[in-house]
Request: fold
Amino acid sequence: MSGHAPPAVRHLYDDALATLLAWRAPDPTQEHLRRSFLTVLGNDPSAVSKAGPPAHLTASCLVMSRDGERVLLHRHRKAGLWLQFGGHLEAEDAGLWEAAAREAREESGLDGLDPLPGPIDLDRHLLGARFGSCTEHLDVRYLALADAEEVPVASAESEEVAWWPAEDLPPGAGADLPRLIGVARHTLG
Reply:
């Protein structure tokens, strides 16, 4: 790997590198993404920061009911879509897992939410003009379980937060959500 991460985010770079090197991709598509994420980090270690290049790492967390039948989503204010919780890594985060947990707690209003250890999926997606200098997110995705009776509270980034049947997502759900939910259910067994 070339270059150095800025000191304030060096720990995020180290964690992202270790996480991606250790993660075993379940299929060739995910392996291609894993390698491309490593290439981005190798080309610019500041890619763990929103202040880094326009294409940078993010962490997200899909929240499902313990039985895998319901999913907690938020209608993202900028994207205008129903999505899992997630966002940029912050210097205060210890690593990707902690960033995913923080984002899930902040955006869902559920305090006791902790993702399962290890990513379940990777996704690389382009962003629209409403996202400013961010042009592409390289998303490391985690899974957390919660009781579907827990009442979520929307954050400033969300228009609303709600539980949905995993098989009956709302209009305007992110196009990749059914696949991600399938990955999560497979992870749960």
Summary: The longest strand covers residues 55-65.
